[in-house]
Amino acid sequence: MKIGLQIPSFTWPGGAAAIGPTLAQITETADAVGFDSLWVMDHFYQIRGVGQPEEPMLEGWSALAFMAAHSKKATLGLMVGGVHYRQAGMWAKAATTLDVLSGGRAIFGIGAAWNEEESHGLGFPMPPLGVRFEMLEETLQICLGMWRDERGSEAAFDGAHYQAARLLNSPQAISKPHPRILIGGGGEQKTLRLVAKYADGCNIFGGPDQLTHKFGVLRERCAEIGRPFEEIERTNLQTVDLSKESVAQVVERFGTLAEVGVQHVIFNLAGVSDVRNLETIGRDLLPQIRVLEPKAL
Predict the structure, then answer these.
(1) Which of 61, 66, 56 is nearest to 23 (CA)?
(2) Residue 22 domain-assigned?
(3) Structural domain of residue 253, as residue ranges?
(4) Digit-coded pLDDT (tens) for 227-260
(5) Number of folded domains in the chain?
């Protein structure tokens, strides 16, 4: 099983001036102890369930670029990008930039988004959900066009929501054939169809029963288009707090996820700003998680 760290909060001791040094230390430590991937959210206000809207939040691509400079091995991605926050071509260009500057470690995480509060607060137009799904598919098509061949495509794109005259992308991404695409969400009629058609990975919320069902639906969506289900990496987001749960309990919980087919577990870590907690995770937990064998579905 692969292991990822998501950093959902920047409310750390020392205020704004300490965010950069703290994030650098977290990134360097997580990379050194063996995390396979590092993630930040694509939000501009802090989200419910994590904190208050007024708490510190960094723009995602900028944070990932900073983290790329403080890591060597881990892949880097948004968990996950909100499609309406950027124009389609900018999504490809931002992911390509991260991929080039990190030496081929970018993951292109994207979804249909949900946060109306920050969208309305900062003036991002937020179309209805059905329209955002249409925008998501067109964005994926444009990105794949820009990641084609040595410098993208000369062809124009004429969609319902986006029009582009020339899908030029120079420099081209280092990852081949392109940065891995991860689509977040478990909607059975739209999201998982897009996963089957375009993605290299999915991130689906929920526990073992829900995941078993959603992975079964994803297999059906893949069969509908004739794509091997096994090509798509199955990820799940969790939280670890060693003040409330023992290492053995976390291993058991993640083992249950492996039994239903999760291949890459990504988790938020309580107290992550104290890198001694990351060192403990690296020493006591990661070796036991890494040997878990995800069930073949």
Answers:
(1) 66
(2) yes
(3) 2-290
(4) 999 999 999 999 999 999 999 999 999 999 999 9
(5) 1
